[in-house]
Each structure stands twice: as structure tokens, then as C-alpha cells.
Amino acid sequence: MDTDTSTIPERTDVGPDSRGVRALLARLAQALTSGDGKMAAATWATPALVVGDDMALTVNSSADLQEVFGGAKAHYNARGITDIRPDVLRLDWITARLAIVEVRWPYLTAAGDEIGDDTSTYVIRREPDGRLAIRAAVMHGEAETH
Q1: Element (H, E) at 23
Q2: Contacts of 70 (CB under 8 A, 6+ apart)
């Protein structure tokens, strides 16, 4: 049976604000490596979910996020990591307001050398107030240090 698809809107490959998603992730990276828990928390909205092989965490407040992210700089620095950057591996807009993005986070030394990485997949939502925010993260795990 042939179906007329002329009235079905075509799905676009790139969502309405892919640059905004990349900017959001860059702000998260800056916040984590500078120890700014408040800035890091501002890239998320609550409630949120974080899931990994060995953990599942529901985040209900910005204060919880600030506490978790506020210690990231010390954790990174203790391992010789002074910077990270979001390398977007895949970005799909599944609705006009929801994007799924897979991100590789290389660990960088002060000299700019890469000494490891981790990968995560995020659900990013255009909130009712218009801002983009992370609503869920799936932690793929950390690669071995080179």
C-alpha cells in the first residue's frame, strides 16, 4: 500500500541550536577546571539523572550539583590534569527541544599533552525559560591513561 507522505514534515539533521549546545559544554568544561561549582551547576537543570556502570544518581537541587562539581578542579589537578575540552562526537536533535550529544572529554596537562579521556552521553533540553540545560548524563567510562 502506497502512503502519501507529502504532508509529513521532514526531520532536519541539525537542531535549532547546535552552537548553543557546544557553548554549554564549553562552559561546563571551564567551570570544572576552574573549580567553579556554581557555574557548572548552572549548565544543568534539576531534577537530573546521572547513570554509569556502577552508579545511578538522581540530582534534585543546584546545591547538590555545586557540591559535586566544586571539587572537580582539585581532583583533576591531583592527577596532573589542568584542562579538559568537549569533543562532540555526535549531536542529534530528537525533538525541537531535546538533543542527545556524545562527548569525549580529553584530559590535558599544562603542556597541552593528552593523558587520558572519558566519554559521556547527555540529554540536553531547551527549558521553558529558553536556556539549554543538561537533564541526564550516561557515563561511558574513562579510558586508560597513556
Answers
A1: helix 18-34
A2: 35, 36, 37, 40
Question: Sign of torsion, CA 94 121 33 41?
Answer: positive
Give the DSSP letter of residue 118: E
**Predicted structure pTM score:** 0.84
**CATH architecture observed for domain 18-142:** Roll (3.10)
78: left (phi over 0), alpha (psi -120 to 50) or beta: alpha
The Cα 14–Cα 31 span in angstroms is: 27
**Could you tell me the pLDDT band of residue 67, with boundaries at 50, 70 and 90?**
confident
Facing residues of 91 across strands? 101
Phi-psi group of 80: left, alpha or beta (phi > 0 → left; psi -120 to 50 → alpha; rest → beta): left
Cell of 12: 532536519
Model confidence pLDDT, tens digit, residues 94-142? 999 999 999 999 999 999 999 999 999 999 999 999 999 999 999 998 8
